[in-house]
Specification:
The protein is of the alpha/beta class and 224 residues long. The strands form 3 sheets. A 5-stranded parallel β-sheet has the order 2-1-3-4-5, sandwiched between helices. A 4-stranded antiparallel β-sheet has the order 6-7-8-9, with helices on one face.
Length: 224
């Protein structure tokens, strides 16, 4: 899966760091800023696919930055705000934002919304093929040798994440962040779901999902 380039502009350090980490764990290239002072330069040099804008920012606020994005870029825009009034959401959408997320929010939901926006923009592959396995991201289905593989929603998200990083080793922490939206949780949650996905896949073909001892997991063809 081709990663997206995401520019995050958020002045709250904890939120900015969490969003950047979650998007990076999901496979995207991320540039984060505490304010929009370098927006025009970042649009020209980083060329983001999506800009995540906090509304309440020092200097120019999110609405002013949105106008600059729309004047200079075809990037998608997701706005973040603590304001939950309908008028603010309508203002953002009418000004050209593609989505509007109200704080506090679940990180996993924000990542999912950005992925959905990237798909609508044609930036993410709709089908991923690994050996004899095909994953359809839009329909949430998996086939192996044309045989449907029944997965739960969580198992599908886990497999799609591994497929997006095929041939690379991902850690349990990265998986927890990308699939469940947080880092500090029982790593057995990953092990249980990986085992379930592996078992279902191997009912219809050779092993694709491998454990790399001491490091994490990887999806690849063969035992190398």
């Amino acid at each position: 899966m081709q990663p997206g380039r995401i520019l995050v502009i958020e002045d709250a350090e904890a939120i900015r760091a969490a969003v950047a980490a979650g998007l990076s764990a999901a496979g995207h290239e991320v540039l984060d800023r505490a304010h929009g002072g370098q927006l025009e330069q970042d649009l020209a040099q980083f060329r983001p696919d999506v800009v995540v804008l906090d509304v309440m920012l020092p200097g120019r606020d999110g609405f002013a930055l949105l106008e600059s994005v729309r004047a200079r870029s075809a990037a998608g825009v997701v706005m973040l705000t603590a304001r939950d009034g309908v008028e603010d959401r309508v203002r953002g959408l009418r000004a050209g934002s593609d989505d509007y997320v109200v704080k506090p929010f679940e990180l996993v939901e924000l990542v999912a919304r950005i992925d959905a926006l990237l798909r609508r923009m044609g930036r993410l592959q709709k089908r991923i093929t690994v050996g004899d396995m095909e994953i359809d991201v839009d329909t949430g289905t998996v086939h192996r040798k044309t045989v449907p593989i029944p997965l739960t929603a969580t198992e599908f998200k886990l497999l799609a994440y591994l497929a997006a990083h095929r041939d690379r080793v991902v850690t349990k922490t990265q998986i927890l962040t990308a699939v469940w939206g947080y880092e500090n949780f029982d790593p057995n949650l990953v092990e249980v779901n990986v085992s379930a996905v592996r078992r279902k896949l191997e009912e219809h073909g050779p092993r694709l999902l491998h454990t790399v001892r001491g490091l994490g997991y990887t999806l690849r063809i063969g035992d190398r």
